[in-house]
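Narrative summary of target 7.
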Amino acid sequence: MSRFVYADNAATTPVLPEVADVMRECFLQDGMYGNPSSLYKKGQEANKALNDARAKIAGVLNCKPTEIFFTSCGSESDNWAIKGAARANVKKGKHLITTKIEHHAVLYTMEALEKEGFEVTYLDVDSDGLVSAEQVREAIRPDTTLVAIMYANNEIGTIEPIKEIAAVCREKKVICFTDAVQAVGNVKIDLADLGVDMLSFSGHKIHAPKGIGALYIKTGTRVHNFLDGGGQERGRRGGTENVAFALALAKALEIADGRLDELDAVKAKRDRLITELKKIPRSILNGSEEKRLPGNVNFSFECIEGESLLLLLDSMGICASTGSACSSRSLEPSHVLLAIGLPVEHAHGSLRLSITHETTDEDIDYILECVPKVVSRLRAMSPLWNE
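Modeled conformation, tokenized:
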């Protein structure tokens, strides 16, 4: 292995040293081990640190600290938002709306609610993976209580028109939730301007550790509790709070927000990858070229199996993914790629590269050196390939 390039940041990211330092200080500082619910001094010191983290997150996202609730991950946040809103508003109706390209944390949650008697409309997307506000408007019925549409797709990087969708929901008096796990840290999010009622995000996508996430719930939004227990998170989510990880999430979010101006450089590297990989014969760029996350590149190569592509790239020191990392053990083709109209055989041959500020020009050079070689090698072995 001549070089190592990590290009799977959409799956997870390494913890930044500054974030690790915050956690280490919390673990080792006298008094920070206290239970935030305790009334004595050590407990109140921990509680203050927790509230400071909440306030920092609220400051970055432009909302009230009391509207931020810590969770264990993005999937928990998605489950809480969807199940909590659906069950809390069941007297109005049992109709929910989402899209066919959501993360499985959303799709499987919707399937679970269908078993409880809820009806779900799964909106189609266009060939770029986009859904329109007008589609949402047309799908809303008198008994619709919730619209759940992701901010940006985890596989193809398409950024949805969430502000416009939220405006339609507000007009129709329907709760609007967006899974922003891929968007937070990659686009500027102003909750006061965005207009959604709920938004989820996760720490390990922005260089915080795995095991911490958050859910924004706008004041006044009817949502049932999802995790009962000792009354933590102002009585909304039981379980002793993870103070060190909450501080880590706040620190990582502050760093990501401070580096948003540097994303043009990430986009330039992304665009270089797209331009050069398009030169590979019978390659297909998946997702919108314009409305796309700054670090996302997703291609399909005809007559190639994505798993073989990943294994060969891994042997050359490149970490990437095919479809979603959360379903990488499945042999089924990506539901996202099928939803945008790719044939099954093309969907099987997908490659996702997700880069960040840490990705260097030399890393891009190496990726562009290796991917065409691997594609050519696999096609030479394929009985289906006829150039």
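Residues 41-61 form the longest helix (21 residues).
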